[in-house]
């Protein structure tokens, strides 16, 4: 699995993803985050780990956080800087956070980044480093794709062309097509179960203190497909293990 590559590291994908905000199924990923973050984290300095084109970095800024966005993709960061020239964005080759000081961030935010981290060992190493940069009462919010997203149809995604996804287990590759962007090439992710995320967190010295699996509501202006019955996303709020 070490030859897994991030599909967002090309100009076409970056340009397409740059236009995406919070439509359809993505709305559920971010809808409940302001209240969740306010209930657990102190407003201050935030790290957006895997910031991509800066969508989530700008989101954290709207909540009052002074935010640094970091990513492995030069193409994505270029788009982020174009949209947010006053923002702070850094390239971190291989996700290496060694240049960041310990205890510097009150909130570490990661949206969909760990969908692209292929092994348990790499996940544990990265979460251990994220734990290191947390302030004394800091929190990590990890937003990931639920395994169910890869075997159902959605307002913003399709998996019908990839029946092999149904046999996938933690660490296996899965494919999904994004319907809200111009780039119709399948996205390749790594599926990971809640049970195996629990193993990762424990090994990295972290504990989940809140877990959300948001569902669509009938009063929301989106053409829900599976979203009212099946949660496409899983949101973990983490703290250091005592």
Protein architecture, described:
- The chain is α/β, with parallel strands linked by helices and 242 residues long.
- 26% of the residues lie in helices and 25% in strands.
- The protein has a seven-stranded mixed β-sheet with strand order 3-2-1-4-5-10-9, with helices on both faces. The chain has a three-stranded antiparallel β-sheet with strand order 6-7-8, with no helix packed on it.
- A hairpin with an 8-residue loop joins strand 7 (173-178) and strand 8.
- Helix 1 (11-18) packs parallel to helix 5 and helix 6 (120-132) packs across helix 7.
- It is globular.
- The protein starts with 10 loop residues before the first helix and ends with a strand.
- 38% of the residues are buried.
The end-to-end span amounts to 33 Å
Estimated radius of gyration: 17 Å
The helix tally amounts to 7
How large is the share of residues in beta strands? 25-35%
Give the H and E element order.
HHHEHEHEEHEEEEHEE
The major sheet is characterized as:
7 strands, mixed
Number of strands: 10
- Which strand order do you get reading across the main beta sheet? 3-2-1-4-5-10-9
Shape: globular
* SS class: alpha/beta
Helical content (DSSP H or I, runs of 4+):
25-40%
Low-confidence stretches: 1-8
* Overall residue-averaged pLDDT value: 92
Oligomer: single chain
């Amino acid at each position: 699995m070490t030859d897994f590559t991030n599909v967002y590291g090309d100009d076409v994908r970056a340009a397409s993803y740059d236009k995406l905000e919070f439509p359809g199924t993505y709305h559920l990923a971010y809808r409940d985050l302001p209240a969740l973050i306010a209930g657990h984290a102190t407003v201050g300095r935030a790290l957006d780990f895997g910031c991509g084109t800066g969508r989530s970095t700008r989101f954290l800024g709207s909540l009052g956080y002074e935010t640094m966005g970091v990513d492995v993709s030069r193409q994505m960061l270029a788009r982020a800087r174009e949209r947010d020239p006053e923002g702070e964005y850094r390239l971190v080759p291989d996700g290496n956070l060694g240049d960041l000081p310990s205890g510097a961030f009150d909130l570490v935010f990661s949206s969909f980044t760990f969908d692209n981290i292929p092994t348990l060992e790499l996940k544990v190493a990265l979460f251990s480093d994220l734990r290191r940069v947390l302030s004394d009462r800091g929190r990590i919010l990890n937003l990931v794709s639920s395994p169910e997203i890869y075997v159902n149809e959605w307002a913003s995604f399709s998996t019908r062309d990839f029946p092999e996804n149904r046999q996938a287990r933690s660490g296996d590759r899965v494919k999904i097509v994004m319907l809200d962007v111009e780039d119709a090439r399948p996205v390749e992710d790594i599926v990971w179960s809640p049970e195996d995320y629990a193993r990762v967190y424990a090994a990295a010295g972290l504990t989940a203190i809140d877990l959300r699996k948001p569902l669509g509501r009938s009063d929301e202006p989106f053409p829900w497909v599976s979203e009212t019955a099946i949660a496409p996303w899983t949101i973990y709020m983490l703290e250091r293990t005592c």
